[in-house]
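Format notes (please read before filing issues)

Several people have asked whether sequences and C-alpha cells are stored in separate files. They are not. Every record keeps both together, in the order shown below: the sequence lines, then the C-alpha cell lines. Line labels are part of the format and must not be stripped during preprocessing.
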Amino acid sequence: MNSVKKLTCFKAYDVRGKLGEELDEEIAYRVGRATAQSQKAKTVAVGFDARATSFGLADAVAKGICDAGADVLDIGLAGTEEIYAAVTEFDACAGVEVTASHNPIDYNGMKIVGRGSQPLSEEEFGLTKHLAEENNFSQPQQTGVVLDKKEVARAVYVEKVLGFVDCSNLKPLKIVINSGNGAAGPTLDALTEKLVEMGIKTNFVFVHHAPDPTFPNGIPNPLLQENRSSTSNAVIGEKADFGVAFDGDFDRCFFFDHFGNFIPGEYVVGLLTEVFLNKEKGATIIHDPRVIWNTIDVVTNFGGHAVVSKTGHAFVKAAMRKNDAIYGGEMSAHHYFRDFAYCDSGIIPWLLVWEYVSTTNLSLSDLVSEQKNRFPSSGELNFTVSNAESCIDRIQNHFCTSAGSTDEVDGLSMSFDNWRFNLRKSNTEPLVRLNVETKGDIALLQEKTSELKLLIKQP
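Then the structure lines:
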C-alpha cells in the first residue's frame, strides 16, 4: 500500500522546493503523473531550465506522464514561455516547465498550466497535489510515448514572438543582452538566426550567454540590485543603445538605458501601455495595485481603459480574459499579452521596446524620463515584522482620517492629494512589502517613505 506523504513543494501557484528535502525525482514523477491524470490529458508539453537537476526532474515528470497514459511533447531546454507557446500551438492538454527561476541554486520546481496555457484553478491544483500525495494512481490501458518536439517547438515560438513587431522597423541598435547563464541563450540564438534569415541586421552584445548550471555569475535575478552591474557595465562599456537582462527561465526581462541606469518595472509597464494603445485605440490595460499613477496617466492620455488586478499571474491572466485586455503589466517585470494566450513573456517586451526606440528615434531614457519625473516612486521595500496583519492595521489606523481613498484589492492602498502607498504582506515570508509614489515631488516621496518605515518598524 502506498503511504501518503505531505508534499511541501506545492506552493500557492506552482511547485517549488529544496532539493533532496522537498523535491526529488520520485516526487517529480508523482507530479507528472498527477498532472496528466487530473487534466485527463492526452498530451503534455514538458520543458526545463538550465539548472543541473532540471533534466533529471523533467525526465521523471515525463515518465509519470507516460505512465498516466499521455504522450509527452518534449521541447527540451526552454523558457517557461516556450511551454506556453507549445501548449497553445500544439493544442496540448497541459504543460510542465521544470524551473526554479530565480530561487537559490539548491532549489528547483515546476510551473504547470492546463489547456490553452491557462493557470490551473485552485481546484485543479489542489487535485494535482492530492493525487501526488496519495501516490495511488489509476491504471491506464496503455502507456504514453515521448515525442521529440524541440526543433519545431522553437521554430513555432520564434515565429510567434516576432509576430508582435514589424521586423522591417527594427534598426540595428546596439543592444546588450544578458541571459545570466540561464535558459535564454539558445532561444536568443534561434531568434537571431531567424532575423538574419529575414534580412534584419542585428547588433547584439551577449553577456553571460551560455547556459551554465553552476551560475558562475550568480543566480539570474536582475531584480536584485547586486545582480545589475554586469548588464549596466556592459551597456556603458559598449556604448550600447540599451540593455536587457533576463531571469533564469526568461519569463521576466529588465531594462537598462544607454547610461546604464536600471529602469524600474512600473515605468516599463507605462511604456508598453503606450506601445499597445498606439496599436489599438481604446484597448483595456490591466495593471497591479502597487504603483499605479504613471500607468493610469498613460492610459488616460492615450485613450485606453485601465483595470486594476490583484498581484500574481493567475489573477492578472483572469482579469485580462474577463476584460479582453490587450496587455497586462506588473511592476515585478511580468508582462502579459492577449495574443500570447494571455501569458507572460520576457522576450516580447524587449522586441517591442527595440521596435519603439527604432521608430520614435528617441532613446529609452528619453521615453521614460518624463514619466519618472512626473511620478517618482520608492521601489519595493521589504520589512521583516513579527505580525504582518497587525502592522498593516496599525498603518491603516494611523492614516485613516487623512486618506482621500482606501482600497484593499491587494493589501492596503491609501491615496492622498499628492502621494499614495501600497502595503502588502508576503504569502511565504514574515514580510510586508511597501511601495510609495508621489505626483512629481521627490522630497515628499522621501518624507513619506521615511515616515512609513518608522511606523512599520514600531514594535
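For reference, the curators noted about this record: The mean pLDDT is 96. The chain is about 40% helix and 20% strand.
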